[in-house]
């Protein structure tokens, strides 16, 4: 029986309503400022740590204002990656762990990472020891402010999970909302910096070139998101004129924009650790050397970022498209790929295709948002442009995914009957 499209619209409205409520709560949290913090010093600190500021904005945070949600979803995303690595270690045997217990351990890992990040930030700015709830000491004030930041991050994790259950867009909707909020401010800052002394021909040409480049990048990213490799599938239960229309679609960029977000998260994690060590072990030559040479403006840091981006692009592709599961499903249903034996040969065939396509996606993202970072060693503007290009890819990917989810909800159960109804 054909589904009623009215029910689909009602379900979509319900989900959108929940998402709007969750975003509203998110906006309130972004405007609750943490007490006892010198915001001007935070801004000065972030001016020398452009990557931290960019990553914070790209992950739902707002370090420049030191709000309750300053850390964003960064600790949670770092915890997810580390947990994924832990599951690959056979000695831990984490794959058999119950989901509830695994979620608890992931949250505990996010708390630890959140404390490391918050302590690293707070130790680089001036704070009021009067806010301390652990005695009027500097250490007590640091712990108090860090506790508030981590509490905000944990609440944000819960909020994003609620949106995944009740709303639309999953946890990434908060990242999308944060990026949309930050972009007008970033654009206005650009115009203030380039046109504060009046209209300049060079600045106008530069602005036009950037606008055309962003538009071209948006179109290119959408094309990569929509482009597919269609693998013909022979279905044993179909023997008519429609059998040749059965195929297995695989995106040209199977990983989407997720590798960029997680690569940024992993890149700043060592920086946070080093900043925290610099407070506890001041004037240590090794720590200072690592801080200076592992940033995104140095060749070592850029190389590390590109390697992470490539590895995660391949990894997320195989998470989104599992050749083992697909080959098993095809074998159980009796379907098969032309000229490919079911079972192991099908798995190897799909693995090669996913690897090749994910490599294409990885090369695309590295070319757009990775390699230009090497120019940032001489001019920091190139670093800003490259990170902005990465943000555009993330933004477009999130919007495409959300529109696909909306389209799926609207067409849910909207199919023709198999047999004629009386």
Task: Explain what this protein looks like in three dimensions.
The protein is mainly alpha-helical and 422 residues long. It is 67% helix and 3% strand. The protein contains 14 helices and three strands. The protein has helices spanning 5-30, 39-47, 50-58, 74-87, 99-122, 138-166, 172-195, 201-226, 258-280, 285-293, 299-320, 323-333, 344-369, 380-410, and strands at residues 228-234, 247-251, 336-337. A three-stranded antiparallel sheet has the order 2-1-3, with helices on both faces. The longest helix has 31 residues, at 380-410. It starts with a helix and ends in a 12-residue tail after the last helix.
Write the layout of secondary structure elements.
Elements: H1 5-30, H2 39-47, H3 50-58, H4 74-87, H5 99-122, H6 138-166, H7 172-195, H8 201-226, E1 228-234, E2 247-251, H9 258-280, H10 285-293, H11 299-320, H12 323-333, E3 336-337, H13 344-369, H14 380-410
Antiparallel strand pairs: 1-2, 1-3
Helix pairs in contact: 1-6, 3-9, 3-14, 4-5, 4-9, 5-6, 5-9, 7-14, 8-14, 9-10, 9-11, 11-13, 12-13
Distance between the termini: 12 Å
Strand order of the largest sheet: 2-1-3
- Mind describing the biggest β-sheet? 3 strands, antiparallel
Helical segment tally? 14
Total E-strand runs: 3
Element string (H = helix, E = strand): HHHHHHHHEEHHHHEHH
Structural class: mainly alpha
**Radius of gyration (Å):** 24 Å
Round the mean pLDDT to the nearest integer and report it: 82
Q: Indicate the low-confidence ranges by residue numbers.
A: 418-422
From the spread of the alpha carbons, the general shape counts as: globular
Strand content: under 5%
Helix content: 55-70%
């Amino acid at each position: 029986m054909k589904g009623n499209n009215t029910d689909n619209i009602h379900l979509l409205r319900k989900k959108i309503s929940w998402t709007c409520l969750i975003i509203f709560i998110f906006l309130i949290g972004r405007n609750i400022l943490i007490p006892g913090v010198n915001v001007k010093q935070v801004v000065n600190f972030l001016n020398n740590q452009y990557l931290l500021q960019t990553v914070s904005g790209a992950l739902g945070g707002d370090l420049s204002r030191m709000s309750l949600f300053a850390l964003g979803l960064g600790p949670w995303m770092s915890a997810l990656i580390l947990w994924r690595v832990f599951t690959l270690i056979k000695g831990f045997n984490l794959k058999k762990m119950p989901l509830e217990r695994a979620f608890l351990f992931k949250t505990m890992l996010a708390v630890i990472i959140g404390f490391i990040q918050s302590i690293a930030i707070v130790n680089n700015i001036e704070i009021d020891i009067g806010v301390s709830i652990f005695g009027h000491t500097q250490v007590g004030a640091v712990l108090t402010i860090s506790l508030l930041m981590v509490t905000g991050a944990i609440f944000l994790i819960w909020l994003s999970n609620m949106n995944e259950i009740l709303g639309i867009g999953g946890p990434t909707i908060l990242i999308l909302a944060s990026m949309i909020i930050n972009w007008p401010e970033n654009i206005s800052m650009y115009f203030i910096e380039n046109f504060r002394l009046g209209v300049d021909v060079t600045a106008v040409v530069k602005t036009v070139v950037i606008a055309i480049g962003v538009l071209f990048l948006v179109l290119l990213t959408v094309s990569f998101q929509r482009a597919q490799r269609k693998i013909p599938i022979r279905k044993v239960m179909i023997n008519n004129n429609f059998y040749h229309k059965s195929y297995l679609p695989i995106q040209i960029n199977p990983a989407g924009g997720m590798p960029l977000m997680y690569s940024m998260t992993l890149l700043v994690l060592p920086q946070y650790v080093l900043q925290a060590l610099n407070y506890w072990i001041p004037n240590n030559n090794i720590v200072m050397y690592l801080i200076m040479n592992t940033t995104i403006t140095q060749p070592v840091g850029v190389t590390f970022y590109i390697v992470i981006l490539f590895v995660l692009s391949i990894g997320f592709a195989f998470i989104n498209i599992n050749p083992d599961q697909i080959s098993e499903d095809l074998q159980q249903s009796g379907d098969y790929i032309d000229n490919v034996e079911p079972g192991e040969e099908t798995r190897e065939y799909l693995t090669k295709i996913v690897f090749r396509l994910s490599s294409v996606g990885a090369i695309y993202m590295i070319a757009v948002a990775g390699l230009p970072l090497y120019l940032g060693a001489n001019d920091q503007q190139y670093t800003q442009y490259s990170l902005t290009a990465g943000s555009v890819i993330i933004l477009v990917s999130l919007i495409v995914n959300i529109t696909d989810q909306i389209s799926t909800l609207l067409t849910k159960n909207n199919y023709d009957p198999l047999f004629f109804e009386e």
